[in-house]
Design a protein that fits this description.
The complex is a heterodimer of chains A (238) and B (285).
Chain A lengths: L5 E12 L2 E12 L3 E5 L6 H9 L6 E6 L2 E2 L5 H6 L2 E4 L11 H8 L5 H14 L1 H5 L10 H14 L4 E5 L7 H18 L2 E6 L10 E6 L2 E7 L5 H9 L2
Parallel strand pairs in A: 3-8, 3-9, 6-7, 7-8
Antiparallel strand pairs in A: 1-2, 1-4, 4-5, 9-10
Chain B lengths: L2 H28 L6 H14 L5 H29 L4 H22 L4 E2 L8 E4 L2 E4 H23 L1 H11 L1 H6 L4 H26 L2 E2 L2 H16 L4 H22 L4 H15 L12
Antiparallel strand pairs in B: 1-4, 2-3
Helix pairs in contact in B: 1-5, 1-8, 1-9, 1-10, 2-3, 2-4, 2-8, 2-9, 3-8, 5-6, 9-10, 10-11
Classes of the chains: A alpha/beta (238), B mainly alpha (285).
Bound molecules: adenosine-5'-triphosphate and magnesium ion.
Chain lengths: 238, 285
């Protein structure tokens, strides 16, 4: 294996909704400064996995370790203080606040200067957020809201950013830009990013892809070794 | 038009708007309809009355501190855990009514009298448009108004205020960006109880307050809040003033017995025409 620091380590994670299990003994890991992609068809358990890591769902069995510390029972807030932030798949902004207020809140635990810089960066990445700075988030278009959600995640200055399907609802050109940006953010800041994706373009930026289906990990490959057909089969269910 | 009744109405509305604001703050923030808030306010007014012999300020401070602590504790230990277990609005209705009954009972047990009035300084007399009224009443009205502005300003311009709005609009996201939502809820509950307490103190100074007055404050407060658009604090203020006028004029024109008939009939009409209240609510009941 490589010598990079292991920041996130999930082992034999089982998560249930009532009697049905959405995740069955899932293993996942991410090194510092890596982008890890979660690929899988609808209902595979990607959202469930990310929400469990962020602390919104409790595992039935298994371990989650952050920087080597076992965090199984840590509440959301404690995990956030350790650097974990989730950008949820849905309901991922504050609808009755303006775009700029949303970004302020995203970085609410940072100091002022850091926040200002990060917001500036988000505006550069998504100029439309700058032009719409005073619009209520809930009145923005679907794609604009998606950009805002990612913006909130970036402003949060998380060291482990979990993004649930960042590309949904974005135009192909925006998706390319987004992936490029996530790639350069990783290079510049050494953040670890875990993202679930339906868009196959994710293999261009991810260092490693975990293929999930029906709550189980089907494969875990470094992207350079990955055959695109495997992913295609995964999404299309062979 | 009778100006005297108009001014009485405005002042009554101003005092009533305090528990209404309390309800709006709690509901707006936590989504919980807290029916205990009036009896808690009255309980604390009895505390003030008990400590009044040490001075007006001491009495009021004791009441404020008590209402803060009670608000904090019931939210932290009872209501937040209940909502995390997925409590629905019926459950909250029952539980908060029970909390209210506990405080009515405590008031009966702990204090020697079932009703009190507080002698606050009259603050001179003021003449407005030819009507004479006490400075205290005017103060009560402006107190309510400035609390409203204070809440709105801090919501808009401070980080704490922003974290409050964020919590009320998207609890999950608020948690993940690092807002301590459990403290936010507890503070909202405390502020709500302190507002209800201030309402009870003015009520006790202008009229008098008895064991059961807490329920009047609660139910009148809720009805006024719903008419204004529950959780919407401008709506709550506006509606309190309108209701104060309705009560005052209906009492003046038709006699006190008709007051509640007219008042509640108008409430029903308003809600049929505009179910989300005069100014609308950001949450629905
Ligand atoms: N609250 C819930 N109660 C019961 N079952 C649930 C709940 N949430 C999710 N599930 C089920 O768990 C499984 C995994 O869901 P999850 O949302 O994690 O999938 P996903 O991979 O994120 O899918 P998508 O790509 O559509 O977002 C699905 O079968 C889903 O129906
Ligand atoms: Mg999902």
């Amino acid at each position: 294996m490589n010598e990079k620091e292991l920041v996130l380590e999930v082992s034999e994670l089982t998560v249930n909704y009532g009697a049905t299990s959405a995740l069955k003994s899932v293993d996942l890991f991410a090194h510092k400064g890596e982008i890890v992609g979660l690929a899988g068809p609808n209902g595979a358990g990607k959202t469930t996995l990310l929400e469990t890591i962020a602390g919104f769902l409790r595992q039935k069995e298994g371990d989650i370790r952050l920087f080597g510390t076992q965090i199984n029972e840590f509440p959301v807030l404690k995990r956030r203080m350790m650097g974990v932030v989730l950008v949820p798949q849905e309901r991922n902004n504050f609808p009755y606040m303006t775009v700029s207020e949303n970004l302020d809140v995203g970085g609410i635990i940072n100091c002022k200067d850091v926040n200002k810089r990060l917001i500036e960066e988000v505006y550069q990445l998504f100029p439309v957020l700058h032009t719409r700075a005073n619009q209520l988030a809930g009145t923005m278009s679907g794609g604009e809201q998606r950009m805002l959600a990612i913006g909130i995640g970036l402003v949060s200055n998380a060291s482990i950013l979990l993004i649930d399907e960042p590309s949904t609802g974005l135009a192909p050109k925006m998706v390319t830009r987004l992936f490029e940006t996530l790639g350069s953010i990783k290079e510049l800041t050494g953040k670890t990013i875990v993202l679930s994706e339906q868009n196959i373009g994710v293999i261009d930026i991810a260092d490693r892809v975990f293929g999930i289906e029906a709550g189980e990990v089907r494969f875990c490959e470094k992207t350079e070794d990955l055959d695109r057909d495997i992913i295609r089969d995964l999404y299309l269910g062979k | 038009m009778n100006l005297d009744a108009g001014i009485t109405g405005i002042i009554m509305g101003g005092v009533l708007s305090l528990p209404v604001l309390g309800i709006a703050v709690i509901y707006g923030m936590t989504g919980i309809t807290n029916f205990a808030i009036g009896t808690i306010g009255v309980f604390c007014a009895f505390m003030t009355w008990t400590f009044f012999s040490y001075g007006t300020v001491v009495g009021i401070l004791v009441g404020l501190a008590t209402s803060f602590v009670i608000g904090y504790v019931i939210q932290w230990f009872l209501l937040t855990p209940l909502s995390e277990k997925g409590g629905d609005s019926t459950l909250f209705f029952i539980v908060t009514i029970c909390i209210g009954l506990v405080f009515t009972g405590l008031t009966r047990v702990l204090f020697p009298r079932p009703n009190i009035s507080l002698l606050l300084p009259r603050m001179g007399t003021v003449r407005i448009l030819g009507v004479t009224t006490s400075g205290l009443k005017i103060f009560a009205f402006f107190f309510a108004l400035s609390v409203l502005f204070l809440i709105r300003l801090s919501e808009k311009h401070t980080n704490i205020g922003k974290s409050w709005r964020a919590t009320s609009q998207n609890l999950k996201l608020a948690k993940t960006v690092g807002i301590d939502t459990q403290h936010v809820f507890a503070w909202a509950s405390s502020i709500g109880c302190m507002l209800s307490f201030s309402g009870a103190v003015f009520w006790a100074a202008l009229y008098n307050v008895s064991l059961m007055s807490g329920w009047d404050l609660t139910f009148l407060g809720f009805i006024i809040a719903v008419v204004g658009g529950i959780g919407n604090i401008w709506g709550g203020m506006l509606s309190a003033l309108l209701m104060g006028m309705v009560m005052s004029y209906s009492g003046h024109i038709l006699g006190g017995m008709w007051q509640s008939v007219v008042l509640y009939f108008i409430v029903i009409l308003v809600l049929i025409i505009s179910p989300r209240g005069i100014l609308g609510s950001e949450r629905s009941l």
